[in-house]
Specification:
Elements lengths: L6 H5 L2 H14 L5 H9 L7 H15 L4 H11 L19 H10 L6 H11 L6 H10 L1 H11 L5 H9 L19 H7 L5 H14 L4 H14 L4 H11 L1 H6 L2 H6 L8 E9 L2 E3 L2 E11 L5 E12 L5 E13 L4 E10 L10 E9 L2 E11 L3
Parallel strand pairs: 2-8
Antiparallel strand pairs: 1-3, 3-6, 4-5, 4-7, 7-8
Length: 378
């Protein structure tokens, strides 16, 4: 089996460092490209991804002018050409340029350089998302930064518009937490939900999903306003709603199902739930066959999720909800839905051998369960 290259090595490696050095040399003739590359490459092997990015940023500070504003100008000038009309790269961008915004966050987040730093992030995010860096400014200079973010929400470049939503997310994964209220960016999202770029609307939906952890009613009210405005196409609005409510649906929040036009107490019963095999090794797949029947006098439309309860290393149990499928059942109709449910450990979910169970969740209500045995990985 061919092993994939770890992200830290593909994202920030000697080749990418050399590429940066070449770009910088073209705009700053006095730049010691060889010394810069040597200093960085010597440190990379023992560093993880974020540390690699910071290592390059520190080297930029060491090999470019002491004046942060001057270095910021050099970094912006060294960026390759970018034209949205012909852009063919990754929406997220190339990790090659991640150290640029990291430099701005750690060296340019101050009153003296505030305007030039924010202007630089606007340009840098077109080449690699500056969402991490922006959060330092939101914490240190919330009013000034949110004013810039509001302007970005109208920018012609969709990378910049996406930064306005993504950088202000309350729970942006793997990023610094921000001290703004969770609803601080609702006016920004009001501008962006009707965007014509999926890269932007995906971020808007994820932003609302973050807010749902603390204020689900605000999320429902906001989605209702947007849907009623008809400023977004029907299919894209359906996408935003589905993505924004995904955590509330998994949690079984009644208001989410009401918003989707679904019953919170559907007349559905499980007449058979079968797991095959009944014992599965960690990393394997659990076969699930579930037969449901509608007991109502009208057609029932239901969302089926799968709740996996598993033993954790040491003691205790963990739980995770997996998205299933949507089915419509006519009165008295029975139907079997089947899937192979992966049972594997992840960086945030560690499984241990022992007794587990799988529950069927229908429109947020758990109506059937079956036990299985989790075996050591092979």
């Amino acid at each position: 089996m061919t092993q994939s290259t770890p992200l830290k090595q593909s994202a920030m490696n000697p080749t990418r460092v050399e590429s940066l050095a070449e770009d910088l040399s073209r705009v700053e003739p006095g730049f010691d490209a060889a010394g810069f590359v040597t200093a960085v490459v010597a440190q990379l092997p023992q560093l993880e991804l974020k540390a690699r990015i910071s290592c390059v940023a520190d080297a930029l500070a060491a090999y470019l002018p002491d004046d942060v504003g001057a270095t910021t100008s050099i970094l912006v000038a060294a960026l390759p050409p970018h034209d949205d009309a012909t852009f063919t790269g990754s929406d997220f961008g190339l990790y090659t340029y991640a150290p640029y915004s990291d430099f701005i966050a750690r060296y340019g987040c101050n009153g003296e350089n505030l305007d030039s730093s924010l202007a630089a992030l606007k340009q840098m995010t077109k080449h690699f998302t500056a969402e991490d860096a922006l959060r330092y400014f939101l914490n240190a200079f919330p009013s000034e930064t949110m004013k810039a973010v509001a302007e970005w929400s109208h920018d012609p470049d969709y990378h910049v518009r996406r930064l306005a939503s993504e950088g202000t997310r309350p729970k942006l994964p793997w990023s610094p937490r921000i001290t703004l209220p969770a609803d601080a960016a609702i006016p920004i999202l009001d501008e962006l939900f009707s965007d014509n770029s999926r890269f932007v609307t995906q971020s808007v939906a994820n932003h609302l999903n973050d807010i749902s952890a603390t204020d689900p009613e605000l999320v429902l009210a906001t989605l209702g306003r947007w849907r009623d405005s008809r400023n977004q196409g029907r299919k894209e609005m359906e996408f935003i709603v589905k993505q924004a409510l995904r955590t509330l649906v998994k949690r079984g929040y009644p208001g989410a199902f009401a918003f989707l036009g679904l019953s919170i107490a559907p007349a559905i019963e499980v007449i058979e739930l079968r797991l095959d095999p009944a014992a599965v090794a960690i990393g394997g797949g659990l076969g699930v066959d579930c037969t449901l029947r509608a007991t109502s006098t009208t057609t029932e439309r239901v969302l089926i999720d799968y709740v996996l309860t598993y033993p954790r290393p040491g003691s205790g149990q963990g739980e995770v909800v997996f998205k299933g499928t949507t089915v419509e059942l006519a009165p008295g109709e029975s139907r079997t839905v089947s899937r192979i449910q992966p049972v594997r450990s992840t960086s945030s979910r560690r499984l241990s051998p022992g007794a587990g169970r799988l529950q069927i969740q229908v429109n947020g209500r758990r109506i059937a369960e079956a036990a299985f045995e989790l075996l050591p990985s092979r």
